Amino acid sequence: MRLLIAILLPWFAFFTIGRPFAGIVCLILQITLIGWLPAAIWAAYAVSQYHTDQKIRRALRS
Predict the structure, then answer these.
(1) Structurally, how many domains does the chain consist of?
(2) Which of 27, 48, 58, 61 is the 20 to 30 A CA-CA neighbour of 34?
(3) pLDDT recorded at residue 43
(4) Gap between the Cα atoms of 36 and 25, Å rounded
(5) pLDDT tens digits for the chain (62 residues)?
(6) Neighbours of 12 (CB within 10 A)
(7) pLDDT at residue 32, rounded to an integer
């Protein structure tokens, strides 16, 4: 679900993973039509890294 949000609303994806400053920077980037694609790619990458970090934390807890 977060990946879909990252593509449609890249700035909002950063807020869902707890990175509000990056979300504001992404919103500024996304305001320009040319910046939408880099913002979406950046958000999708950040969400995938967030999921990877969560898996590592769960593995270390066990």
Answers:
(1) 1
(2) 48
(3) 94
(4) 12
(5) 888 988 899 999 999 999 999 999 999 988 887 888 899 999 999 999 999 999 999 999 87
(6) 16
(7) 83
Does 52 map to a domain?
yes
Instruction: Name 27's Cβ contacts closer than 8 Å, sequence gap at least 6.
Output: 11
Dihedral sign (CA 4, 11, 22, 41): positive
Q: What is the pLDDT of residue 47?
A: 94
Q: Look up tokens 């609303």; give the residue.
A: 9
Query: What is d(CA 5, CA 2) in angstroms, rounded to the nearest whole number?
Result: 5
**Residue 23 domain boundaries:** 2-56
> Rounded to an integer, what distance in angstroms lies between the CA atom of residue 58 and that of residue 51?
11
- Assess if residue 30 is contained within a domain: yes
Q: What is the pTM of this model?
A: 0.85
Looking at residue 13, its amino acid is A
